[in-house]
Amino acid sequence: MVRLDSTNRAQYEKEILDLLENEELTLFRERFLELHRTDQVEIFLKLDQFNRQRVYAYLSPADFGEIFEGLEFDIQEEIASELDERYFTSMFDKMFADDVAMFLSRLDDVEANAILEQMEAEEAQEVRELLSYTPKTAGAVMTKEFISISSMDVAATVIEKLREQGPDAETIYYLYVVDKLGKLVGVLSLRDLITAPANEKVEAVMSTRVVSVPVEMGQEEVAKMIKKYDFLAAPVVSSQGRLLGIVTVDDVMDILEEEATEDLGEISAAKGATDVNVSAITAAKKRSPWIIMLMFFGLITAEVIGQFEDTLEKIVLLAAFIPLIMDSAGNTGTQSLAVAVRGLALGTIKKGTIAKMIRREFGTGIMLGLICMLVLSITVTIMHQHLVLALIVGFSIFCTLSIATVIGSTVPLIINKLKLDPAIASGPFITTVNDILGLLIYFSIATALLQYL
């Protein structure tokens, strides 16, 4: 397999494109298929529709299936519309069941069923099984292409079985041992297998301390478990302990990317609109509920300022520091929000560590507040020659930052306790809440000391 680097990529791509243009079928297949799949995908994406049609003609459905698996869903839809129906279904028959299920799960039921009806019965049944599980669970993301063996098999027999079934399995680094009822009873690593004597029984070399995941476990929890144990794959079992499939590390990487994207969308109040391929209309629809809600929160902010109209009329200069107070509160709260959401996502925040985390963030807020109060007090005194004004602004920023860190860190914990996604405590939401509190603190202190201004 050839892996392109920065020095030979352009030359190699040109050679392959020339072979495609000149319709040199045999040489094109030889040069193209020796590439890593990632490089095949990158070259394929640069082709126009005419040359893509040539690729479909030159590559078998099995060959092209590997490229199809590496494409984003919106591109897969476009490519699917270009493929001949027989070629398309034959390609799905050769692909791993979990990749087919992932694609079909995003289509409407009528389209998905039409494709399944045309697939081979055995392959279609595996895909239907995966589609029957609750989305974003271990069952929905597992693959059915794994190798299971009996504890009574000997090493030589298992190695021969690997030669026959290995090419169709997604991974062979772990072999799962099942009993007559299909229940998972052990696991055998490839290393232990090839180092065992040829006539050694599997039960003598397998490990019986198997870490498995239930079929209904959430995909994010599955990903965390595989990361925790440094697995290449994890077996998925039914409530009766029957081995149903495996979740592989490449699926975990996709899951973590998906979850991180979702959390980023939540934190930025742009859930579902972070994909650059989403249209402007779709992005606006996704973002508008949050923006409208935050707009009404903004009315509360305006009302707070209105309540202190008399204070502002007497000392108009106070208005100059409103943006500073609001921005500082929002920024500090968002930082604490990121700390809390990250801790919850990684599982580092537990019942015994919550108080410690909040104390740490509160202490951080106090330190930040003291630093900002000192710098701001000196700056305001020099600029406006007004010591009391400097005291008001400085003490307000101190109180605001101290409280903002606590709010930013506790709101996600409360939402998590309510069994909701803590990322919905979005940055804009935390910012707006802290804006309101910051203004209340600022104007309350200013009003109390108004006679000295």
UniProtKB/TrEMBL annotation:
Stretches that traverse the bilayer: 290-309, 315-341, 362-382, 388-415, 427-450
Domain CBS: 142-203, 206-264
GO MF, one annotated term: magnesium ion transmembrane transporter activity
Major subcellular location class: membrane
Entry membrane topology: Multi-pass membrane protein
Source species, domain of life: Bacteria
Subcellular location: Cell membrane; Membrane
Record's keyword terms, sorted: CBS domain, Cell membrane, Magnesium, Membrane, Metal-binding, Transmembrane, Transmembrane helix, Transport
CDD domains found in the cross-reference section: CBS_pair_Mg_transporter (cd04606)
Family: Belongs to the SLC41A transporter family.
Assembly, per entry: Homodimer.
Biological role stated in the UniProt entry: Acts as a magnesium transporter.
Protein name: Magnesium transporter MgtE
Organism: Halalkalibacter hemicellulosilyticusJCM 9152
